[in-house]
Design brief:
The protein is mainly β. 13% of the residues lie in helices and 38% in strands. The protein has helices at residues 2-19, 24-29; strands at 44-49, 60-62, 66-71, 74-77, 87-91, 96-106, 109-113, 117-119, 126-134, 150-159, 162-165, 169-170. A hairpin with a 2-residue loop joins strand 10 and strand 11. The longest helix has 18 residues, at 2-19. Residues 7-19 have low confidence and may be disordered.
C-alpha cells in the first residue's frame, strides 16, 4: 500500500511537470493561440484575470489560469510565454468572450477546464474574470471525484464600493474554441 501511494504521487508530480511545458490553453485545445494586442485610446475597458479568494463563491474555489479572450477576429492569449500580467485593455462597447483555462489534480487524475462566457464591457470600467473549480470545496475535494468536478467562469465589475457580478452568457460562437 505504501509503495502504491508513492507511485501515485510520483505519477501525479510527473504529469504536472510535463504539463508545464505548454500553456494550459494549448493543453486544453491542442492549439497555440497568438497573444492579444491591447486596445488603445479613450474607448477602452480593462480586463484583469484573478484567482483572488475575495471572488470565491459558496460553491467554488478560484484557481490560477491561462487567460484567453475571443473577439471577432479570433481567440487570443492575454499573456505571452515570457510574462504573466493577467491584464489587458479591450475595446469598450464590443461584445467579448473571456475565460481562464484552469487545471487541477485530484486522486491522481487531472482535469483542465475553460469555458467561454461573453459580455459587453463599458468604457472606463475594470472587469475581473475568475474561473473556479466547482465541486468538493474545502477538504471534501479529496473525496469528491474529479468526474463530479467542473469549472465556472464569472465576471465582476470593479466599483468604488467593491465589486458586482456581471451578467454573462455562454458562448455558442464557433469562432471561439469550445472544450
Amino acid at each position: 500500500m505504501k509503495h502504491s501511494f508513492r507511485l501515485l504521487v510520483i505519477i501525479g508530480v510527473s504529469l504536472i511537470v510535463a504539463a508545464c511545458a505548454t500553456s494550459l490553453s494549448e493543453q486544453l485545445t491542442g492549439q497555440k493561440f497568438p497573444v492579444a494586442k491591447a486596445a488603445a485610446g479613450s474607448e477602452v475597458a480593462r480586463l484583469e484575470f484573478s484567482s483572488d479568494k475575495k471572488y470565491e463563491t459558496a460553491k467554488g474555489v478560484p484557481l490560477v489560469g491561462d487567460p484567453l479572450i475571443c473577439k471577432r477576429d479570433g481567440t487570443f492569449r492575454v499573456n505571452d510565454d515570457n510574462s504573466i500580467s493577467n491584464q489587458i485593455s479591450i475595446n469598450a462597447g464590443e461584445e467579448i468572450a473571456v475565460t481562464s483555462v484552469i487545471s487541477w489534480v485530484n486522486t491522481g487524475f487531472r482535469k483542465t477546464c475553460g469555458p467561454f462566457v461573453s459580455f459587453t464591457p463599458e468604457k472606463g470600467s475594470k472587469y475581473i474574470v475568475v474561473n473556479e473549480r466547482i465541486g468538493g470545496k474545502g477538504a471534501s475535494w479529496m473525496w469528491t471525484g474529479i468526474a463530479f468536478q467542473t469549472c465556472e467562469v464569472s465576471v465582476f465589475k470593479e466599483l468604488p464600493s467593491g465589486f458586482e457580478r456581471v451578467s454573462t452568457r455562454k458562448v455558442t460562437n464557433s469562432l471561439c474554441y469550445q472544450p
